[in-house]
Amino acid sequence: MSDALKHECGIALIRLLKPLEYYKEKYGSAFYGVNKMYLMMEKQHNRGQDGAGFASVKLNTQPGERYISRVRSIAQQPIQDIFSQINDRINKELNDFPEYVNNVALQKKHIPYVAELLLGHVRYGTFGKNSVESVHPFLRQNNWMHRNLILAGNFNMTNVKELFNNLVELGQHPKEYTDTITIMENIGHFLDDSVSKIYKNLKKEGYNKNECSPLIAKRLRLDKILRKASKNWDGGYTIAGLLGHGDSFVLRDPSGIRPAYYYKDDEVVVVVDDSIIDVLSMYDLKKLITSSETRHIVNLKHTFDKYTCEYDHKIPEGLRVRMFLGPGLENWTPDTINDIGCGGSETSAAWLMKALAERDCYPMLYATDDQVWDGVVYRPAADYVPDNIDCDLFISSRQPGVFEVPIPARQKWLWVHDIHCGSALTPEIAEQLNVILVLSKWHLKFLKGV
Q: How far apart are CA 205 and CA 368, in angstroms?
């Protein structure tokens, strides 16, 4: 006997990892993402028949070019209705401008929905009126790309009134008393705050206004924003969001009440809720991450070749530990250590940070990778920004020069585990360190004179 159909909404997110020209050449159409989204949403039509919505974000557009498109419907067959609207618009543009037909660049520039980032939703109404204004995705608009937020979800919050009142206490005036608006404005508040802080820091560093925008996109950390926003959420949820500059995320409740699945290959990242897992028969199911693997956020960065799982199911409550290892001679990950071996410095750092994660700490390692391994958030050394390192413990591996710039850490340690630091460890740097860890008596003897 099959499981009973649950009364829940359904969501699907697609992130294309290649330029649109790639899909035109391989699959015969730059509308690959739109076509796949239709298949996914059609699989969900029994899940939510009160309405359906679709939104897309184009990457790397120029000022003055439209990069966000959205369509929603509460028609009797809402999925068919929104894709009929999408197809009619695309066909009209191609008929009116024949030069678009074989030119993917012109299609992306001028035709809505031809994009790399797509979000779909079918609605089963549990909160609010059954009107098109209640249909996801919701859109929070702003003239700054980074502050545009598109949100869709499958959730049932039990403390909406408390969250709404928190927004009012912050001085906000939410336009509606609904769960989705409340959640969206909650995330939007911390998003605005983060963008403002990054912008002020960049101005202090000497960047002009035009230079700041791409750097804000690079430095923006959705994991921090979502941890702050979801701190007081109570209920079951899987919530997907898109930002105007191309970052996206899927966030689920720590208890897995509304679990989610994702798939990635070199062409696409797909995230769906558990109710439509059969839709991914078009992909390799063995690569799906299920709720049992306790992944809490999938955060898809705006560059073509990166995606990141920002943190795991249980939000760490222990020490926030950051370590700077540096870029190294070649790229490596913990898989490199397991498969072919790696240098002693890299291996010891990876094992140390893994052990801290197992003790419920929140470790981050600046080295060469850009995702989560064994509960440790890996970041490229090039992404290291001292004033973003607020933590309990900061460790530099062999590189005292890192401490020449102030670091807002409660404890600062230098780890000298193979070669000594030579003249780089000055008395001025040593004075601000809480601990210098050494491997041997030889190191201790050498460093005593500092």
A: 25
The residues, ordered by sequence, that sit 6+ positions from 70 with a Cβ below 8 Å of its Cβ are 53, 54, 55, 56, 137, 139, 150
The backbone torsions φ and ψ at residue 84, rounded to the nearest 5 degrees and listed phi first, read -65, -40
pLDDT at 167: 82
| Residue 56 to residue 327: CA distance in whole angstroms | 35
Question: Torsion angle, CA of 308/314/315/318, rounded to 10 degrees?
Answer: -120
Give the predicted TM-score (pTM) of the model: 0.68
pLDDT at position 373 over 80: no
In angstroms, rounded to a whole number, what is the distance separating the alpha carbons of residues 433 and 244?
41
Q: Is 399 left (phi over 0), alpha (psi -120 to 50) or beta?
A: beta
Match 């290892």 to its residue by tokens.
325
pLDDT (mean) for 425-429:
88
> Before 78, cis peptide (omega within 30)?
no
Per mean pLDDT, which range of 290-304, 311-325, 387-401 is the poorest? 290-304
Q: How confident is the model at residue 243 (pLDDT cuts 50, 70, 90)?
A: very high
CA–CA dist 242, 264 (Å, integer)? 18
Please say whether the beta carbons of 295 and 313 come within 8 A: yes
Segment 294-308 mean pLDDT: 51
Q: Which residue has the higher pLDDT, 134 or 303?
A: 134
Question: Could you tell me the CA-to-CA distances from 440 to 397, 421, 425, 446, 448 in Å, in that order?
Answer: 15, 14, 17, 10, 13
- Alpha helices of 222-330 — where are they, by DSSP H? 222-229
Kindly report the CA angle at 299 between 298 and 305, in degrees rounded to 5?
110
Determine the pLDDT at residue 69.
96
